[in-house]
Amino acid sequence: MACLSVFRGDAKVAVACANPIYLDSSSKIQSDATLAFDVLDVDASTLKSMIGVLQIFALESKAFWGMLTSLEPRAALFGKPALRGRLIVKSILSEDKSTTAN
To answer: What residues have CB less than 8 Å from 83, skipping those under 6 apart?
Structure first.
């Protein structure tokens, strides 16, 4: 279980866009990887407008350029409607690149 966040505006603050998500055990946050995850439909309202948009995401204390490529219905999760997401990690941001000096 994890919280997927996205950086907005000036990229100084990340806001949650799906919480919780359930990453596949084989998903690894690294450049050129595809992360597969499940999310309850009720927790995915923000994600639905992000498909196909390159953005800076944060997951498990890592910030990265990524793109949500799909969000499709799947079998129920905990007895509730759920979606299967795929997020392409373009490149990992190092701490000095993801923050700005004041």
So the answer is: 38, 39, 40, 41, 44, 47, 71, 72, 73, 74
**Distance of alpha carbon 47 from its chain centroid, rounded?**
8
Distance between CA atoms of 99 and 54, rounded to whole angstroms? Answer: 18
Question: SS3 of 29, please?
Answer: coil
Q: Is the dihedral of CA 19, 46, 17, 21 positive or negative?
A: positive
* Residue with token string 């969000």: 71
pTM, two decimals, is 0.86
Residue spans of the chain under pLDDT 70: 11, 95-102
* Helix, strand, coil percent values for the chain (each to nearest 5): 10, 60, 30
